[in-house]
């Protein structure tokens, strides 16, 4: 990766924003810092307005699409991807319950820090009420998506696809470019209000746990794939390592598809199965992303001593799993789609959501690598049952179909999960 491409990546800009926010908090005058606080207030209000629209516009056509294309195998692969994603989230929840009382016990004092005391105040604020609540968006998208799939409503399906493209353009051209400035303002405010070092220390431990967690989950995936296919799990996993390391370098599921496809074939997966499963799962299988979001979310819950019982946590994961399947394929797209669930179901405030976004993007490539490597395990499982039954177009053509709604070009290597 050259200097120009590195400096233009979202990860680089977020890291710079965090560092500058911390440094500037040491000497910025209050009047200057409150300019950024004003921007953050407006941007946060816009996100609150936009996220329900985002969720509806992504999930409705995604569910409707299950009734089109490759018939029952599309639904089966989507179900496997959803089950894998939920399983990853449940492991993250179990790990948080078992490890956080020990790992983060010295950081619960964060909850006692009153960040509102002496907090920076915006110069003005503009309320932006959302058109509907997040849960309403989910239910409406689910009902409308199922309805379109059942009655084959081509006109309404095209309308939701167009809405999806409009929303995606808003994300890529407006929301994502402004995220680093938003994160800068958050860390600037936390640094000037106190408690920043304690929070960063706690999240550093969770970052390491998330990387280890994705590797352990891959191990489980390939053990299951090996048991189903009656093949050596280690050999299956070893064959997929080139895809893993390619994704680490590109942080892009789309750019890794050719490598994932070739390595999947080395696991004796039928060419039609590989050509169908790999491009599809590159869009809908985000188990690695779920692991990261789950671990970070439950870390915030533990550190801030929030009341989230097991029932609420599992409900959050089930809803988040649907959101992950429809998450946009852009840098930070998964965590942006998840912010609605974090706020509406877990009660996260603006600072906590910003921490989630920054931590997620910091190890974005590890989540993407886990996603695409796990795609190989799913392909092995599907191959056991679908070999000889799938007759699809070429991987490039399927990839093009998957790219339509996301406006992704084959050469675009910056579009992450």
UniProtKB/TrEMBL annotation:
The keyword Transferase does not apply. Keywords: Membrane, Transmembrane, Transmembrane helix, Transport. It is a multi-pass membrane protein. The keyword Glycoprotein does not apply. It holds the Pfam family SDF. It is found in: Membrane. GO terms for molecular function: neutral L-amino acid:sodium symporter activity. Its main location: membrane. The chain crosses the membrane at residues 12-33, 45-66, 73-95, 132-151, 171-190, 202-229, 241-261, 273-304, 316-337. One of its GO terms (biological process) is serine transport. SUPFAM superfamilies: Proton glutamate symport protein. Gene3D superfamilies: Sodium:dicarboxylate symporter. GO terms for cellular component: plasma membrane. This is Sodium:proton antiporter. It comes from Corynebacterium glutamicum (strain R).
């Amino acid at each position: 990766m050259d200097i120009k491409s590195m400096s233009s990546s979202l990860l680089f800009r977020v890291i710079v924003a965090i560092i500058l926010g911390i440094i500037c908090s040491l000497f910025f005058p209050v009047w200057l810092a409150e300019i950024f606080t004003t921007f953050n207030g407006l941007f946060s209000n816009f996100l609150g307005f936009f996220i329900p629209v985002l969720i509806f516009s992504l999930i409705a056509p995604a569910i409707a699409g299950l009734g089109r294309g490759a018939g029952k195998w599309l639904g089966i692969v989507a179900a496997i991807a959803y089950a894998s994603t939920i399983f990853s989230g449940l492991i993250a929840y179990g790990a948080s319950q078992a490890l956080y009382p020990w790992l983060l016990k010295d950081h619960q004092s964060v909850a006692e820090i009153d960040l509102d005391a002496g907090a920076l105040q915006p110069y003005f604020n503009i309320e932006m009420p959302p058109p509907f609540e997040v849960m309403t968006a989910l239910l409406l998208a689910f009902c409308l998506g199922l309805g379109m799939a059942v009655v084959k409503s081509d006109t309404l399906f095209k309308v939701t696809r167009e809405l999806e493209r409009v929303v995606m353009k808003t994300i890529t051209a407006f929301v994502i470019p402004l995220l680093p400035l938003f994160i800068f303002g958050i860390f600037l405010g936390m640094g000037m209000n106190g408690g920043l070092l304690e929070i960063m220390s706690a999240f550093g431990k969770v970052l390491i746990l998330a990387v280890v967690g994705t590797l352990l989950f891959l191990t489980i995936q390939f053990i299951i794939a090996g048991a189903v296919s009656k093949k050596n799990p280690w050999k299956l996993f070893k064959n997929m390592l080139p895809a893993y390391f390619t994704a680490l370098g590109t942080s892009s599921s789309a750019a890794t598809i050719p490598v994932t496809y070739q390595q999947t074939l080395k696991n004796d997966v039928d060419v039609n199965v590989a050509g169908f499963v790999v491009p599809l799962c590159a869009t809908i299988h985000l188990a690695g992303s779920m692991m990261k979001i789950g671990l970070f979310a439950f870390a915030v819950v533990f550190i801030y001593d929030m009341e989230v019982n097991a029932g609420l946590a599992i409900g959050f994961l089930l809803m988040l799993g649907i959101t992950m399947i429809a998450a946009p394929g852009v840098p930070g797209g998964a965590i942006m789609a998840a912010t609605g669930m974090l706020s509406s179901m877990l009660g996260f405030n603006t600072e906590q959501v910003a921490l989630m976004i920054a931590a997620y993007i910091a190890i974005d490539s590890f989540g993407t690598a886990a996603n695409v490597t796990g795609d190989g395990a799913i392909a092995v499982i599907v191959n056991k049952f679908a070999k000889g039954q799938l007759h699809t177009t070429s991987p490039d053509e399927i990839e093009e179909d998957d790219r339509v709604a996301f406006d992704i070009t084959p050469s675009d290597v910056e579009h992450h999960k």
